[in-house]
Fold this protein.
Amino acid sequence: MDGEISPDEVKELLEDDADVRVIDIRDEQSFNHSRIPDSENIPFHELTSRVEELEGEDRIVTVCPHGKASVQAAQLIGSYEGTADATVESMEGGLEKYGLKFGLIGSEDEADESANAESPF
């Protein structure tokens, strides 16, 4: 693991269309509910069996709710031979900090359901 990266830096990388993979390690349901735009979901419990999907990447950022479990995920990814040359970082403060500052996106399905829901007013 190469340390932590701030939510500001992550947002900047994504806005600059940098060659970075943002890996959200929460479960699929949580990921579908809210996430960082352009992030992808590899739940923590699947990480060891799916780490080869990250082979050959230049930069990987792991994210979780509060920035604690993503440190462990970054360490695991960084220890994999196929990612030895990658910069692997954990986003400090997690999705909570990123979401408070920049907001998160939700699933398109939920947006459709909300649009079709009857208004309480």
Residues 53 and 82 are 9 Å apart (CA to CA).
